[in-house]
Amino acid sequence: MDLSLLETLNADRDARRAAILVTDLETGAQRLVRQGDDLADDPLGEDLKKRFRSAKSGIVEDAAGKAQFLTVSVPPPRLVVIGAVHISQALVPMAEVAGFDVTVIDPRTAFATPERFPERVLKPDWPQDVLKAAPLDGYTALAALTHDPKIDDYPIQAALEAGCFYVGALGSRKTHGKRLDRLKEAGVADTVLSRIQAPIGLDIGAASPAEIAVAVLGAVIAALRKEAETR
């Protein structure tokens, strides 16, 4: 591999940017394609889009019938949970089993305790401070679960601005209506606000914290694997 391409690919990985290394198996020629690049005129455009979604490497053929190997590098999916609540306690282990890197953020020290959550996931601080050090991105899902605007609103807005693949918030439709009013006042456009799923999670009639956690994780996985096809 060309050293400059390797350095660029490694830098993209460190910055959680998705990229695909395209290798011509006949000539050995290589090029790097980043997610977000204009693929309209790329002969492998559709294949590249599919691979960004599936995160799977493999061989494809270009229009001339030449074999090209696509080495796909996408960030591991993250789930950022706002609120160290009962739902979060059930959600964390399930999400980790499903392959997500999980972070739970809550400045309320009565909730954010090592007795309730593993220290590896817990950030007992304000979202503003945590997300400054570890910014959200397109391979991150956000679940806001505190019911407290002082804690939830900032990360929801940050998730929308960062293009997180899923943004969900706990609360009734009335609560969500007030949330939308606040976010509009903060300058968030209606078209962007429509990306928030509220009430959060799949509509499966969930009642208990554990059932709601299942509904949330199902919605996150659907957004990552299925709804991404429309983006």
Strand content: 15-25%
In which order are the strands of the major sheet placed? 7-6-5-8-9-10
Per the CATH scheme, the topology name of the largest domain is: Rossmann fold
Please name the fourth-level CATH homologous superfamily of the largest domain: NAD(P)-binding Rossmann-like Domain
> Averaging pLDDT over every residue, what do you get?
92
CATH class descriptor name of the largest domain: Alpha Beta
- How far is the N terminus from the C terminus? 31 Å
Proportion of helical residues: 25-40%
Q: What number of domains?
A: 2
User: How many helical elements?
Assistant: 8
Looking at the structure, what is the overall shape?
elongated
Structural class: alpha/beta
Largest sheet: 6 strands, parallel
Pfam families: XdhC_C
Domain XdhC Rossmann: 79-218
Organism: Stappia albiluteola
Protein name: XdhC family protein
